[in-house]
Design a protein that fits this description.
181 residues, two-stranded antiparallel sheet, mainly alpha, 51% helix, single chain, two-stranded antiparallel ribbon, globular
Length: 181
Amino acid sequence: MPTAPTEQPSTQRTDRATPPTGVAATTPLAALGQVPWSDIRDSTGSAADIPRLLRGVARGDARTARAALDELRGRICQYGFVVEQATAATVPFLWELAQLPHVTCRAQIIQLLRSIADARQWESVAAVYPKLLNHRENPAVWERRARQAVRARSGALRTLLAEPDGEIARATTELADALAE
């Protein structure tokens, strides 16, 4: 009798508390190079463009940042579905960007994190069609890992809830509620 494939090991950790040697703690997205993006997938194939999109969100004017975030959303969480393995690897960077005061689309980043935290579509499908779990590429595992990645950084909620920007505070409250369920 064939056995179900085991979960694939994560590629690399991006949740280290300290930056790599020689990188200033204030350098945004300093850990991007620690993830083998070209070896993992997003909805378009190789996730190699995710660092470019994250940098666009971090450094772009409001229009550029929003366009980069919209493209990023399509690659990692389309229509509320965690679509590929790159989602979990991207989450720590979304948390980082959500906390940077100069980022122009912070509320939308927090909303994306909430969408990822709420994602249970693949697990629901697997409950009805358990054979889905026998596939080598298991989307239910991607979904679970992405939710775990959101939870792993939830310590930032307190700071974000204290934001004077009402839109950020509202989005953070919704994310906190999603994580409390």
